[in-house]
Amino acid sequence: MFSLELLLDAVVLGVMVGCFYAAVSIGLSISFGLLDVPNVAHPALLVLASYGAWLLGDFDIDPIVAGFIMMPAFFLLGVMLYRTYHETFEKRGSDAGVRGLAFFFGIAFIIEVVIIMRFGVDQRTVQAFYIGKSIEILEVRIPMRMVAAFVVAILLSLALTLYLSKTFLGRAIRAVAQDEAALRLMGANPVAIKQWAFGIATAVVALAGALLIIVQPVEPTLDRAYIGRTFCVVVMAGLGSMSGTLVAGIILGVAETIVLTMFGASWAPAISFTLLLLVLGIRPQGLFGR
Amino acid sequence: MALRLAATGVDARYGAVRALNGASVTVEDGETVVLLGTNGNGKSTLMKCLMGIVRPVAGSIELEVDGTRHDLARLPTEEIVGLGVALVPEGRRLFPKLTVEENLMLGAFRKSARAQIATNLAFAYEAFPVLAERRRQLAGTMSGGQQQMLAIGRALMSSPRLLLVDEPSVGLSPLLVSQTITKIEELKKKFGLTVLMAEQNFHQAVRIADRGYIIVHGEIAFEGKTVAELQSNEIVKQLYLGGG
Ligand SMILES: Nc1ncnc2c1ncn2[C@@H]1O[C@H](COP(=O)(O)OP(=O)(O)O)[C@@H](O)[C@H]1O
Ligand SMILES: [Mg+2]
C-alpha cells in the first residue's frame, strides 16, 4: 500500500492542488481575515464565478480570460454586498458577527438556488487547450489544468501581497482591521476602505471561480465542499496573511492528496476540518499570525 | 496665513455621562496651548470633538484657516485632517502589525499629503533617527518612547498646521517624558506649527506652553493667560503643587 513513489506523486500533486486552494481562499483571506466580515458566502460566490466562466465558454472565451472579464462585475457585487452588510449589521455594532453570519448564509443559499433554477443540477465543464493534457514534473504526471491553476494562483498571491504592502490603499486595508479609529485620524474613511477591499476580495473570487471549473467539474452545491477548505486555509494562514495563505493552502493540498492516495477518496473531505480544529486547538493565531 | 481655533460652550456626552460642560478653548496662530487636567476630566473628549470623532451636543467648534471659517462640529474627520489638523492620540494608537515606515506612510494617506511624502518622510527620520534605523520593524514591537516618537512622526506626515497632542507622557519614564515634550517644542518651531496639548504632567507641560487651561469635570475651571498665571492659580496649587 505504501511506496515512496506514490508519496512523491502525492506531494508534487499536493503542492499544485494546494496553490489552487490558496487561490480560491485568498479572497476570503481579505474579507474574513483582514476585514473581519463573516463571509460564508465566499464559496458560493466562487461557484457563481465558475458558472460565469462556463457561460462565457459558449463564446469561445478561455476560462482564465473569462475570470478576468468577470472581475469588474464581481467587484461591484462585492461592494454592494459589503454596503448592505454594513448598513444592516456592522453599523449597529455588538452582535454584527452572528447576524452577519446569517446574512451571508442567506446570500449563499440564494446563489445556490438561483443557479439550480437557472441551470439545473448537472455538472458543468469548460474547454481549453490546457485541459485534458498532462505534463511530467519530477517524473510525476501532472494534469496541465493543475499547472495552469498553479501558475495563476502564484501570480495572484504575489499581486495581492504587493498591492497590500506597496500601495496607499493596500496599507490602509491592512490598517483598517487593526485600528479603525486611528485610520480615521489619518484622513481615511474606514467604511470606504473596507468597501473597496471587499470589492477586491470579491473580484479575486471571479478569477478563482474560473480556476475552480478548470480544475474540476462544477455543480450548484459544490460550494459546500469548499466551506471547510477555504476557512481552514484562511485560519491556518493566520488571519489576513497573503503569503501565509499560500503556505496554508499547500499544507492542506499535500495533506489531502496524501490521505487520498493512502486511504481513499472518502477521507479527503474530513481533512480540512481536522486541520482547522488542530490549528484552532494548538495555534489559534494561525501559522503566520502575530 | 492665519489660523485660529475656537471651541465655544462645547457640551459632549457618552450616554448619560456628561464629559464636557460648556467648555470653551481658543488657540491662536503659532501658540502652544496646554489643556491641563487629571484623569477623567474631559481632555481626550475635547480632543475627539476637535477631530470630529465625538460630536458635541451643544456649542460650536470653528477653525479659521486663511480667512475661511470651517465648522469642525459638522465636518467628517477626513476633511478636518484635510484642513491641516492632526491628532497624536492618547495611547499612540499605532498600527502594531505594520512596520514603522508603513505607519508613517499611512500618516500621508490624504492625496494632498502624498505629494510631499518624500520630504516629510525625510523630516520624520531626521527628527527621530531611531525611526530610520527601525523602519522595517513592526510598530508593536517597539518601546513606549519609540512608539510615542512614531505617533508624533506619523501625525506630521500629513503636513499639519495645527497639531493636537493628547497626553504624550502616558506610560513614559520621567526622562522620556521630558525628551518628548522638548521634541514637540522643537518640531513646533521647525514646522511653524500651532500646538494644543492635553497633559496631566503640569511641570513638563508648562515648560513649552505659552498659556493654558485647567479642565475639571468637563468645565474650564481656569484660564491662564501666561504660565505664571497658571503656576500661581489655587486649583493648580491644590492639584499639582501639593499646596492649597
Ligand atoms: N467611550 C466612553 N464611554 C463612556 N464614557 C466615557 C468614554 N470616554 C470617556 N468617558 C468618560 O468621560 C469622562 C471624560 O473622559 P476623558 O475625556 O477620557 O478624560 P481625560 O482625557 O481627561 O482623562 C470620564 O468620566 C470618562 O469616564
Ligand atoms: Mg485622556
Radius of gyration of chain A (CA) equals: 19 Å
Spatially, the strands of the biggest sheet of chain B line up as: 6-7-8-3-9-10
Low-confidence stretches of chain B: none
The CATH superfamily of chain B is identified as: P-loop containing nucleotide triphosphate hydrolases
Please describe the biggest sheet of chain A, giving its number of strands, its sense, and whether it closes into a barrel.
Answer: 2 strands, antiparallel
Q: Helical amount among residues of chain B, as a percent range?
A: 25-40%
SS strand fraction of chain A = under 5%
Which CATH class of chain B is shown?
A: Alpha Beta
Large-scale geometry of chain A: globular
> Which strand-content bin applies to the residues of chain B?
25-35%
Q: What is the subunit arrangement here?
A: heterodimer
N-to-C series of helices and strands of chain A? HHHHEEHHHHHHH
- Biggest interface between chains: A-B, 18 and 27 residues
Strand order of the largest sheet of chain A: 1-2
Using only CA atoms, what is the Rg of chain B? 17 Å
Rough outline of chain B: globular
Bound molecules: adenosine-5'-diphosphate, magnesium ion
Characterization of this structure:
- The complex is a heterodimer of chains A (290) and B (244).
- Chain A is an all-alpha fold.
- Chain A has one domain (23-225).
- In chain A, 74% of the residues lie in helices and 3% in strands.
- Chain A has 11 helices and 2 strands.
- Chain A has helices spanning 4-34, 42-57, 63-88, 96-119, 144-166, 168-178, 180-185, 190-215, 223-237, 242-263, 268-282, and strands at residues 134-137, 140-143.
- In chain A, strands 1-2 form a two-stranded antiparallel sheet.
- The longest helix of chain A is centred in the first third of the chain and has 31 residues, at 4-34.
- The mean pLDDT of chain A is 90.
- With 244 residues, chain B is an alpha/beta fold.
- In chain B, helix 7 (144-156) packs parallel to helix 8 and helix 8 runs parallel beside helix 9.
- The chains are: A mainly alpha (290), B alpha/beta (244).
- The structure holds adenosine-5'-diphosphate (ADP) and magnesium ion.
- Magnesium ion is lined by residues 43-44, 90, 166-167 of chain B.
